[in-house]
Backbone:
């Protein structure tokens, strides 16, 4: 019997998807929830709009001080296709796996470097390094197989 007068709220947790073309025989998976990646990728993308969030500032630091090209990491799209333009964008974000893997190696190394500023900016996202390392492993597997990859998210 339903609970009368009681409200039920469901938390919507964003999720990042990693796809390969051609599909890999043993598709890699994240070792934990990927929501922190959706947040980081979105905030890294939003630096161009002046975002002041700590993860946006982390992305700026990685670009400016570490000279890491984050373009492969910020090439992603929403999986929710509502109109033709959404499908066009989803199709556009396929990319070579090797540049993504290289970017991820550099970002994972920077996060593990012990740099105090990086640690401070990523403090509220304790799983970020582990999920980025998962994504690095996945991109390297795809690069070894000669596959293209697509990053997309679901809210």
Residues:
């Amino acid at each position: 019997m339903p609970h009368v007068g009681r409200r039920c709220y469901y938390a919507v947790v964003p999720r990042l998807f990693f796809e390969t073309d051609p599909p890999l025989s043993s598709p890699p998976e994240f070792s934990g929830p990927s929501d922190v990646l959706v947040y980081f990728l979105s905030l890294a993308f939003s630096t161009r709009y002046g975002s002041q969030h700590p993860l946006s500032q982390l992305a700026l630091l990685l670009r400016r001080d570490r000279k890491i090209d984050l373009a492969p990491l910020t090439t992603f799209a929403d999986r929710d296709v509502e109109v033709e333009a959404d499908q066009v964008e989803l199709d556009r974000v396929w990319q070579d796996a090797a540049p993504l893997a290289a970017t991820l190696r550099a970002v994972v190394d920077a996060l593990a470097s012990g740099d105090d500023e990086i640690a401070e900016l990523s403090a509220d996202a304790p799983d970020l390094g582990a999920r980025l390392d998962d994504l690095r492993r996945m991109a390297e597997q795809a690069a070894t197989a000669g596959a293209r990859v697509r990053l997309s998210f679901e809210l």
Summary: The mean pLDDT is 93. The beta strands are 15-21, 76-78, 95-96, 148-154. The chain has one domain: 15-23+32-154. The two ends are 30 Å apart (CA to CA).
